[in-house]
Amino acid sequence: MVSQVSFTLAPRQRGYHVITREVLSQLPELPAVGLLHLFIQHTSAAITINEAADPDVLTDFESVFNHLVPENMPFLVHTLEGPDDMPAHIKAAMIGHSITVPITGGQLNLGTWQGIYLCEFRNRASGRRLIATIYA
């Protein structure tokens, strides 16, 4: 059996945000065993799984990615939507647009310290749309 829901996350400021609880609140009851596939419908934000226990990890991700892909690089051509837009596209391509999580015992089978991140790369973003597909 396959089920699918789409939902919009609350708008967030630029940065990395643990959204595991918000995602779970939008899902129907999970099967005993299966897979959750999450897809973000945007090109300037990403989702991933990483450390969710220490908030310093979120800050460090933001610092590293801003160092790797800074704003106002003089050779960028796609600049109509502001200096944060093309760097946001590059960062999103580096991290990715989807994740898959196993479901065990009716719960997401994440590791002890893991959480689902929204990686928001725009300075002024609206709520981000996700598609959740549950395979039982």
From TrEMBL:
PROSITE patterns: UPF0047. Pfam families: YjbQ. It comes from the Bacteria. NCBIfam families: TIGR00149_YjbQ (TIGR00149). Belongs to the UPF0047 family. PANTHER family: UNCHARACTERIZED PROTEIN YJBQ-RELATED, UPF0047 PROTEIN C4A8.02C. This is YjbQ family protein. The lineage of its organism: Bacteria, Pseudomonadati, Bacteroidota, Saprospiria, Saprospirales.
